[in-house]
């Protein structure tokens, strides 16, 4: 973890502000936190994420997201109309997909969009560093839904913003979910050339 965090710490940031704050949770503490948020999610407790969920996307984004969701479900053998199967899959988030380590990235609550961009750079470098050491990661936007409870459990001040959760561990090559690969656009689809 130290090597991974050292590599991530080299990330660029706006005027070198380095807004990232990291909580690495494993062992009994991770299990206790998992129990807490799993119970909240199972009981459909209202969440209060520090970052609002997207309120709408352009049609092309909706199409890509829908296709991604359908293909993920298919890889797991879950039908789109199988509400129980879909809920079971969603609840896997709160068990960190069985990973031995969960990483929570926070930043000062008063910071704005520039710092969110910096947090993205840090996150990307963290997961690439982990991959270079043979570890795999899963970015989890659903877990921060319970940011208040997570911060209370970990003793993090409430004014900090919880940006993302990352589950980290060695990949299980036999897990159905790990057979799925998202379809990505070709660069020609999103690039305009000006000469």
3D architecture notes:
This protein has 195 residues and is of the alpha+beta class. It has a domain of 133 residues: 3-Layer(aba) Sandwich (NADH Oxidase). The chain is 42% helix and 15% strand. It contains seven helices and four strands. It has a four-stranded antiparallel beta sheet with strand order 1-2-4-3, sandwiched between helices. It is globular and about 45 Å long. The model has no long low-confidence stretch (mean pLDDT 93).
Features of the shown structure:
NADH Oxidase, 195 residues, 42% helix, four-stranded antiparallel beta sheet, alpha+beta, 7 helices
Brief summary of the model shown:
This protein has 195 residues and is of the alpha+beta class. It has a domain at 2-51 and 95-177: NADH Oxidase (3-Layer(aba) Sandwich).
